[in-house]
Known about the structure:
This protein is an alpha/beta fold. A hairpin with a 2-residue loop joins strand 12 and strand 13 (431-434). Helix 2 runs antiparallel to helix 10 (231-247), helix 13 (284-303) runs antiparallel to helix 14 and helix 16 (394-403) packs across helix 17 (408-421). The protein is 45% helix and 14% strand. The protein folds into 2 domains: 10-365, 3-Layer(aba) Sandwich (Rossmann fold); 378-434, Orthogonal Bundle (Arc Repressor Mutant, subunit A). The longest helix is centred in the last third of the chain and has 26 residues, at 340-365.
Amino acid sequence: MTMVSTQPNVEDMDDLRIVEYLNLATLPEPLQKMLAQAATPAERDMLLMATLTATSACLPNLYFRYGMTGKRYYANLQCFILAAAASGKGIANQALEMIQPVEDIYPTLIPGDSTFPAFFKRLYENGGHGYVHESEGSVITDIWKSQAATYNSILRKAAEHEQVSHNRVKEMQVIPCPQLSVLLTGTFSQYHHLVPSIENGYFSRLLPLIVRDTQPFNSRYVEAAAPTEPVSRQVGQQLTNLCTRLYCQPEQEWSLTSAQKSRLASHLSTEYKALISMLGENFHSAVVRMAVQIERIAMILTAMRIQNTDRCTDRIQKTDYVESGDKDRPSLVDTIYCSDEDYEAAEMIGGKLILHAAVAYKMIEGERAELVPQVETSCQKQMLYERLGGEYEHQELLTEAKVQGISRATAQRWNERWLTEGKICRIQRGMYKKIS
C-alpha cells in the first residue's frame, strides 16, 4: 500500500491523546511516578500503555468474571505502539526497566527474537505466564514473518486465556490457561504482519496506540548529581512486593460494582455507536472486546494501590483498596471492588483506545492513503455546538449530546474546550452563553 505523507488535523490529533484527559492526581502513585518521566504528550501516552501492559504481566492470581458464563479473565494486556521514527517511542523501555526487579525473582520475560518452538517452550516453562517486550518492530518482522499465522493464533488464544498446545517430537505440550502480556512498537507494515485483515481475530484483541508526533530535537542533558535509584526501578520494587503477595495467596476475584457495570454497558452502547455506523459491523468485535480491556485496565489500577509491603504472609485486606465496601473491619477480601476513580480512568483510557482502533481499522482497510487516517469528530462537535441555544444550561448540553449519541464525558470535554477557545463564556454555575 502506497503511503502519502499529509499534515494531520491538529484537533483530531488532540482527540487521540489519552493522558492529557486524565486526572493525574487521582491515578495510583506508582503510575504517577512513571508518567512523570515523560516530556511530551506522545511520550506520556506511550509510557502509560507500556506501564499498564508491563504491570499486567505481574499480577498473578487476580481475576474478574465476564459474560453470561462468568469466564475468568486476568490482567494481561497486549498492545502495539505504531509510531514513526524519531517519535520518542524509546520511552516505552522504561516499563521494561520497571519489571526487571520482578524478573530477578519471578522470571517472566520472553524474547521476541525467538523461533516459535523456543517461544512456546519458554512460555510453557513459565507455567503459562509471560511478557514480551520488543521496542524494535523489525525484530518481530524478521523472526515472525515466516510463522506469522502461528504466532497470531497463540497470541489471539492467549488474549482470551484459551488452551494452547504445541506438538513436539517427544510429547505434546499443553498450556491450559496462558496469561501472556505483550508490548510491541513498530511501523504499520510491522503491525500488518500480525494483523493482516479486519476479519483476523487478533485485530479486536491487540490494542493499537497510534503516535502521530515526531520528536523534535531537544537537548536534554542531565547535570551531574548524586546518584539515585532510577524511578522505574523504585516502582519496580513496589511491583515486586505486590507480585510476591499475590503469589502467596489463592486466586482473588476483583469486580466492578453494579453501578459501574451498568455505566460500562451504557458507555459501550452509546459512545461507539457512531464509529460502528461509520466503519461497519466488522468493527463491532473491537467494541465488544473493549469491555474486557476496560475491566483489565481498571483492575490493574486497583492492584497498583495495594499497600507496599514485601511480607509474603500478608494477605490482601480491604484496607489495601479504595472501595465502596465496609472499611472499618479489616478482613480477608472475598471480592475486591473497583473504586469510582479507577473506573473513570479506565473508561477514559478505553474510550480513547477505541478511537485508536478505528484508525488502525481504516489503515488495514486501505480506504485512505495517508499514513495515519483521521477519525472525523470535528463535524459532530460543530453540530452539537450549533444545536445549542445562544444561552444554555449544563443539562441542555447533556440532553442534546445524548440525542446525538455523544457520551456525557465527551460533551463535557468539548464544552470545556469551547470555554478555553473563547467560543462560550460561563454566565453562572451551570449556565453558558455563546460568544458571537
